[in-house]
Amino acid sequence: MKLFLSIWFALLAMIAPAAASPKLEFAARKGRVTVFAEDGLESLGRQMAESAEKTLGRISADLNGLPQPEKIEVRVVRDAKDLAAISPADRGAPPWAIGVAYPDLGIISVATRRNGQPSDPLATLRHELAHVALGAALPRAPHWLHEGFAYQHSAEWSRERYETLAGMAWIGSIIPLDQLDSSFPREELPAHRAYAESYDFVGYLARRGRWEDTDDDGNRWPFRRFLGEISRGATVNAAAITAFGRPIKLLFEEWRHDLGKRYMLAPLGLLGLGLWVLCGILLAFAWWRRKRQNRHRIAQWDLEDAARAERERAKSSQMIMAPPYVPWPGEDPLADEPPEDDPPSDPRLLN
């Protein structure tokens, strides 16, 4: 009996993941992109197909003339816990991921929420599309270049990442370039130095001109040449010299100096902003207090006017009021006197 129960529970354990795996149905196809979505996400799937082809067009500008993915399959599910279940065979998905790209297979998996928190599936899709496109163009690109390039085309701003870069500039905790690839954590944390550093360094390379020049017009052609040289087999250092005129380590030092200029002054700017906010709060408080005092003053005036009016009414009543009747306490001395109007006695009675 125990053996039977053990076999039964083992079979249930084997069947449970398959039963829990979401079923994906065809949702849309646009150009090279085909989207399969979980039931109820068909509308999102169509939107993602339309967005994906446009995003690939923008990414291809940085990879002009380089190999591009011929077709891409996008798989969309509601919850990130299902990403491993829909991944290609034997590939799996990190437990922390909200989206996963498999550049060698041209497959992308995207979830709309993780741990009950909704995400932006279109931003996730842009990030993963950049990984697939760069993987097709540069099969041996370093990890930091992959992450920085993907960030360039997804524009995922993060307050934690901003604070991390500011802290790195202030305390000098920048990871050396030759250690950067080995510094990525098992989990993608927005505030981790490796991710923040990669995003910002690649962004600096994308903005930099042929020479160190603050007046660069921003057409990105040196950065695109840099990627082209790597695609054609050059090392990262040789590609940097060809595209930017400097070795990659000197470019990294340029970026470090630029990071310091941008973020060392950030606290001063934040302090000035804080002072302006404080002044605004104080002015608002003063206005509120003055308004409150005015209300109290007007209310006091109303009370004084009402009291004055009451006193005036009382005074007017006293002026026209008749005195009360008080009876005479004793005998009337004039009670025996004849009335003045009585006629005189007959004169004959006087004789």
Per-chain topology:
Elements: H1 2-20, E1 24-30, E2 33-38, H2 42-62, E3 72-79, E4 99-102, E5 107-114, E6 117-118, H3 121-137, H4 143-152, H5 159-171, H6 177-180, H7 193-207, H8 221-231, H9 236-244, H10 248-264, H11 266-319
Parallel strand pairs: 2-3, 3-5
Antiparallel strand pairs: 1-2, 4-5, 5-6
Helix pairs in contact: 2-3, 3-4, 4-7, 5-7, 5-10, 7-10, 8-9
Q: Mean pLDDT, nearest integer?
A: 80
List unreliable stretches of 5+ residues: 1-19
Count of domain modules: 2
Share of helical residues: 40-55%
- Tally of helical runs: 11
Largest sheet: 6 strands, mixed
Q: Could you tell me the strand content as a percent range?
A: 5-15%
Number of strands: 6
Order of helices and strands: HEEHEEEEHHHHHHHHH
Q: Find the structural class using helix and strand composition.
A: alpha/beta
Cα-atom radius of gyration? 45 Å
Give the termini separation.
165 Å
Question: What does the model show?
Answer:
The chain has about 350 residues and is α/β, with parallel strands linked by helices. Strands 1, 2, 3, 4, 5 and 6 form a 6-stranded mixed β-sheet that branches.
Keywords:
6-stranded mixed β-sheet, Glutaredoxin, 11 helices, alpha/beta, 351 residues, disordered N terminus, 54% helix
In short:
By secondary structure, the chain is of the alpha/beta class.
